Amino acid sequence: MTTLPKILCLHGFVQSGPVLAAKTQGLRAAFLAAGYELFYLTAPVPMDSGITELADHRGWWLDDGIYDIDAGISAVKQCVLSEGPFVGVLGFSQGAALASALVAHPEIVGHAFFHFGIFFSGYRLDPVDYQWIYKEKVTVPTLHVWGDLDTVMEESQSQRLLDSCEEGLRTLLTHPGGHFVPQGKLMVDKIVKWTVEVSGKERE
Fold first, then answer.
1. Less crowded by CB within 10 Å, the N or C end of the chain?
2. Is-catalytic flag, 11?
């Protein structure tokens, strides 16, 4: 039985793997048709409502401006060991910020190489402690997708992540929507086509 190449998917803040999977059914189906499997990992940090833990709402770190990514890195490292290898990584919002660290330094999760990164509404890790991640520009192909009407992530924040990637290896796509992973056929086809081209895998 042939194993499809896997793409690791990292959800946004106050989401989960199953939530992102449900919100990206069209993208997942298109990737499967192209010969790729999307693997959705759930973040390790629970969100506390003050009354009870919200099992379906998690984060890679508490988004309080002074955050610690160690738990998120550990979760990805365990995932790489049990479910890897992964040919690339895809992230949305907070998940895209973590994904940017993974494509820049895959060794932090024990992964030899991610061939590409796909960032939806992405941004750089801001704390001073993590600026070493961006000391050198990301040197694998990256796709940056953001919405013209995104009121959660400022374009300037996503632009900083774009500028952290090698100019000849980065691609920008915009859509006329907000803070979400676009599921329109035209945009989905562009994303999958880009992935097939940069990974060197032809559609079957």
1. N
2. no
Catalytic site residue from 16, 100, 144, 150:
150
**28-58 confidence digits (pLDDT tens):** 999 999 999 999 999 998 876 544 455 578 9
What's residue 64's pLDDT? 63
Concatenated DSSP letters of 63-84: -SSS---HHHHHHHHHHHHHH-
Let me know if residue 130 belongs to a domain: yes
Neighbouring-strand partners of residue 144: 119, 172
Give the angle subtended at the CA of 72 by the CAs of 69 and 78, to the nearest 5°: 140
The count of structural domains within the chain is 1
179 is annotated as an active-site residue: yes
DSSP H or E run through 94: helix 94-104
Of these residues, 16, 93, 121, 164, which one is catalytic? 93
Residue 199 in any domain: the answer is: no
Q: Is 64 a catalytic residue?
A: no
Q: Supply the range of the domain harboring residue 113.
A: 6-43+56-181
Q: Which of 70, 48, 49 is nearest to 60 (CA)?
A: 70
Handedness of CA 118, 64, 79, 108 (dihedral sign): positive
Among 45-59, 166-180, 190-204, the range with the most confident prediction by mean pLDDT is 166-180
Q: pLDDT tens digit string along 116-151?
A: 999 999 999 988 889 999 999 999 999 999 999 999
